[in-house]
Each structure stands twice: as C-alpha cells, then as structure tokens.
Amino acid sequence: MSTASTFCCWKSVVIWKLWKEERALDIIDPSIEKTYLADELLRCIQIWQLCEQECANDRPSMLTINFVLGNNSNTLLSPHQPAFVINKLGTKYR
User: Fold this and answer.
1) CB within 8 A of 46, min separation 6: which ones?
2) C-alpha closest to that of 65 among 48, 90, 78, 80
3) Is 50 exceeded by the pLDDT of residue 55?
4) Does residue 87 or residue 74 have the better pLDDT?
5) C-beta of residue 14 within 8 angstroms of C-beta of residue 27
6) Does pLDDT of 86 surpass 80?
7) What pTM did the predictor assign?
8) What is the pLDDT of residue 7?
9) How far is the C-alpha of 21 from the C-alpha of 13, rounded, in Å?
10) What DSSP character marks residue 91?
C-alpha cells in the first residue's frame, strides 16, 4: 500500500472512530476554533462519511448534497462504517 493510501486509510479510521464516539469536531485544528458553526461542520463530516459508503446506493447524490448544504437541511441518514476502513485494514472500528 502506498504512503498516500495508508494516510487516507488512517484518516478514514480516525474520523470514523471519532464520529461514532460523537467527537467528530476533535479533527478540527484548535487554532480555528470558534471560526465555524459546529452544526454546519458536523453536516459536512456526515456527508463525507456517507460518500465513503461501500454500496453506491447508500451514498448521497450530488443533488442531495447540494440540497442539504444549500437549505440547512438535516435529512441525511446516519453513515455506516466506511468500506475502506474494513477492506483495507481488515479491522472493524465500532
């Protein structure tokens, strides 16, 4: 596995673990704390997690993403553990 693939895999594992622990905002650099709206950032992280779903049918369409981001909608499903985390590492993080 290349260095870039290893980093990408590691990043997915860390973000998934923090998401499940309801600590997703911990990935944000403390130097920009208070310069963002937590709800908006969590919505973006949720979209990111949904876009990493193994089954394409579980991923949101670009139309859905545009609607959610443009209308402050929170109609997204909860993401499942990303396939990349399971398949590349052979380990499940719950």
Assistant:
1) 19, 76, 78, 79
2) 48
3) yes
4) 74
5) yes
6) no
7) 0.73
8) 54
9) 12
10) -
**Sign of torsion, CA 44 90 23 21?**
positive
DSSP state of 81: P
Distances (CA, A) of 20 to 26, 41, 54, 67: 12, 16, 17, 25
Q: Give CA–CA dist 48/35, Å, rounded.
A: 20
Q: From its phi and psi, is residue 41 left (phi > 0), alpha (psi between -120 and 50) or beta? A: alpha
Sign of the CA dihedral running 9, 22, 76, 38? negative
CA distance 19 to 24: 5
What six digits make up the tokens of 18?
Answer: 């923090």
- Taking a C-beta distance cutoff of 8 angstroms, is the pair 56, 65 a contact? no
